[in-house]
Write a structure and sequence with these properties.
Order of helices and strands of chain A: EHHEEHEEH
Strand order of the largest sheet of chain A: 1-2-3-5-4
Number of helices of chain B: 4
Number of domains of chain B: 1
CATH class of chain A: Alpha Beta
Number of strands of chain A: 5
Strand content of chain B: 25-35%
Radius of gyration of chain B: 13 Å
Oligomer: heterodimer
CATH topology of chain A: Heat Shock Protein 90
CATH architecture of chain A: 2-Layer Sandwich
CATH superfamily of chain B: STAS domain
Number of helices of chain A: 4
CATH topology of chain B: Transcription Regulator spoIIAA
Helix content of chain B: 40-55%
Largest sheet of chain A: 5 strands, antiparallel
Helix content of chain A: 25-40%
CATH architecture of chain B: 2-Layer Sandwich
CATH superfamily of chain A: Histidine kinase-like ATPase, C-terminal domain
Chain lengths: ~150, ~100
């Protein structure tokens, strides 16, 4: 049974940094190295910003950040019940064509191993992202002393 | 989360030098936008952003910089990022912004 940590976050921009710190701490505890922790931090922050920008959840509402630590991966789901957006028609920005918006999902997909964006008009948004725990991004600084691959090979 | 923005107009070099310190995200990106736009309206010229002490920036902050780049490029002026930390440099590389915003 994987461990799960869930944050219920007020729908206000000033709390995104708190989420960032909490998830960074969990990633460090999970044994990821510094660069990978930075990737996870940026990705979860982008997901929160995306929720706040596109879902019109308002100050009186909140959204959830669910972090599940599996044996070989950290899975983070950012979920809201806002108005959503049409993810089916989302287009990746062209990096050669600079624009003000639209970079968030692009950055998340570049930094994480697996990303799912499920959103439909009127049904809220789910952004689920996964970072695999591999020997090369495992720092041996957290609760685990060896990568899961090593544990399973004993 | 704190962000300090210090702008200095270099009349001799005809450019703005901004020192960004702290972190930029959705909670304070509007401050950066406002200060850059106000400065540029006062002295429309090249804008240099020193990120040596900027620990974090996300797409909302990058969006502000892209917006400024687009606006002042039309006037024939440059937006240049100098001294980004490795984590910021990685984001600039991912988004290909390094090709147009970082000085050779």
């Amino acid at each position: 049974m994987p461990d799960t940590m869930t944050l219920t976050v007020p729908g206000k921009p000033e709390y995104v940094s708190t989420v960032r710190l909490a998830v960074s701490s969990l990633a460090a505890k999970s044994g990821f190295d510094v660069e990978t922790i930075e990737d996870i931090k940026v990705a979860v922050s982008e997901a929160c910003s995306n929720i706040l920008c596109h879902s019109d959840i308002g100050d009186e509402y909140s959204y959830r950040v669910e972090c599940t630590l599996h044996e070989n991966k950290l899975e983070i789901a950012v979920v809201d019940n806002g108005v959503g957006f049409d993810a089916g028609n989302y287009e990746m920005p062209n990096p050669g064509c600079l624009q003000v918006g639209g970079l968030g999902i692009y950055i998340i997909k570049a930094l994480m191993d697996d990303v799912q964006v499920i959103s439909n008009d009127g049904e809220g948004t789910l952004i689920r992202m996964t970072k695999n725990i591999r020997p090369e991004n495992f720092a041996s600084i957290g609760g685990r002393e060896t990568p899961p691959e090593s544990e399973s090979s004993r | 989360m704190s962000l300090s923005i210090k702008g200095n107009y270099d009349a001799a070099g005809s450019r703005w030098n901004f020192d960004l310190v702290g972190e930029i995200d959705i909670s304070n990106a509007h401050q950066l936008k406002q200060q850059l736009e106000t400065a540029y309206a006062t002295h429309p010229t090249d804008v240099y952003l020193d990120l040596e002490r900027l620990n974090y920036i996300d797409s909302t902050g990058l969006g502000v910089i892209i917006g400024v780049y687009g606006t002042i490029r039309g006037d024939g002026h440059k937006t240049i990022i100098v001294n980004p930390k490795d984590n910021v440099k990685k984001l600039l590389r991912i988004t290909s912004l390094d090709k147009v915003l970082i000085a050779e």
